[in-house]
Amino acid sequence: MITVRVVPRAGHTRVAGVRDGALVVRLAAAPVDGAANEALVALVAGALGVPKSRVALAGGARSRDKRVRVDGLSPEDARRRLSAILSGD
Fold this sequence. Notes:
Largest sheet: 5 strands, mixed
Strand order of the largest sheet: 2-3-1-5-4
Number of helices: 2
Mean pLDDT: 93
CATH architecture: 2-Layer Sandwich
Strand content: 25-35%
Oligomer: single chain
CATH superfamily: YggU-like
Shape: globular
Structural class: alpha+beta
CATH topology: Conserved Hypothetical Protein Mth637, Chain: A
């Protein structure tokens, strides 16, 4: 499970860092009709190198604070891949 803090209507869609134990994600999409949630799933899937079908919101669909579940990826692998993204590797 990944805890995510979403900033909708940002200039660009990107992983912005970590704050208070949550992954901060800036999304260009507006939080209307699930567009921001869909953009979040696509971004997390791309960042972790897994298909979108393996990424799902586990909580917070109508909140900026969300929990994302990634099937088929251990927590250690997810942390390692996210650390590589955040460090610019």
